[in-house]
Amino acid sequence: VYMNVSLAVYPKGTAAFNMGLNHVTFYGLDMIGYDWGGGVRSGSFLLSNGFSGGSPTTWAQSKVPELNDDEFAKRRSIRFEHNTFTDMGYSGGVINFGAYDSCYIGYNTFYYVGISGEAIDISGGTDHVIEYNKLYKIGANGIKLHSQYRKLENAVVRGNLIVYNGNGTTYGAGLGVQNAKNCQIYNNTIY
Predict the structure, then answer these.
(1) H or E, element range at 59
(2) How far is CA 175 from CA 32, 114, 134, in A?
(3) Under DSSP, is residue 138 helix (H, G, I), strand (E, B) or coil?
(4) pLDDT in tens, the chain (191 residues)
(5) Distance between alpha carbon 115 and the CA centroid of its chain, in Å?
(6) Dist. CA 163–CA 138, nearest whole Å
């Protein structure tokens, strides 16, 4: 499947508080960022339940917390497998989400991620596995794990190849981890 992304893809659960975005797999996509002219391309996956309603812009910019406890929408088991992402993520993560659980990101290839974007930006949740991805020429951080929307716990990051990151307008790390608990990070190659 080929997709030319015009800014972002917003898979959305529902505005209801009792249903979440669950058990979704993105497999075998060949995605190229939208050409805005002047050599600028961008695009991303921003996963949201979007409680504020409205357009994709308001889902992305909503100040309403995306709650994820026993009384509100559960979000879990989102998978990205065997995809290729090229010229995406101008100023955010190509794959960008928080407050999800048990997500898998494996065997994907990322080329030329924008001037200040990450390939993978996970800002909370538990039991994520990020493995065997190839990341080339990433604008900021290759993989960023942090506690922003919710605590990040029990993630496994292994076997990823991250080459020439921090080449945009922002300096970055191949693999950045902050405020995370009980994570296993091993056998990654960064240069």
Answers:
(1) helix 56-61
(2) 23, 16, 13
(3) strand
(4) 444 443 344 455 554 444 566 788 888 888 877 767 766 666 666 665 544 444 443 334 333 444 444 444 567 788 999 999 888 765 667 888 777 889 999 999 998 877 677 889 888 889 999 999 999 988 888 899 998 868 899 999 999 999 987 766 667 788 989 999 999 999 999 98
(5) 16
(6) 8
